[in-house]
Design goal:
- It contains five helices and seven strands.
- The chain has a single domain, classed as Gcn5-related N-acetyltransferase (GNAT) (Aminopeptidase).
- Strand 3 and strand 4 form a beta hairpin.
- The protein has 196 residues and is α+β, with helices and mostly antiparallel strands.
- The two termini are 23 Å apart.
Amino acid sequence: MRLEPLSERHIDDLWNAAENAESSWEYLRYGPFDDIESLRTVIQELAGRSHQPFWAVVDRGSNRAKGWLSICDVYPHESAAEIGSIWFSPSMQRSHVSTEAVFILMEYVFDHLGYTRLVWRCFEENIPSRRAAERYGFTFEGVWRSGAVAKGRTRDIRWHSMLITEWPARKNAIRSWLKTDNFDQSGKALRRLADI
């Protein structure tokens, strides 16, 4: 797996990855898409955000993009940022690849940018995202009631954070989980990240 700046060259791959995956867009402000041109319009807009860099997640074996994620709400003066706007195709969800993609951005924020606070935000009813935040080691901070309107519904927003002082232990745990000897021949993890 590798991350590449999201661009129009990924549109065909992402359109194929999104086929029959309507439910995967439930907690995002965009999607599902009726046609490839609708997806193209959104990709062009996302890829053009100078304040919110997006990356495509590309599978090394097939060389095809299968999802995307971003760093958003970047506050250099507060030394804080957020990982967000994540869309992973069904084949990526709950996988080694999705964990590695998020981990790369976590490393980028803490180790490269030197930020001291990383945020994970999701809609309160988004149980998979809540579990992911806990799995990566983020700490629940609270809920903003009626904090957003998305797809015609008012949503509560759940906030999680990780601090630079917590990062070394989280980084070691995720690195241990990602090691090849933690996976069987079918690609199933032998130990849960929460257990590590």
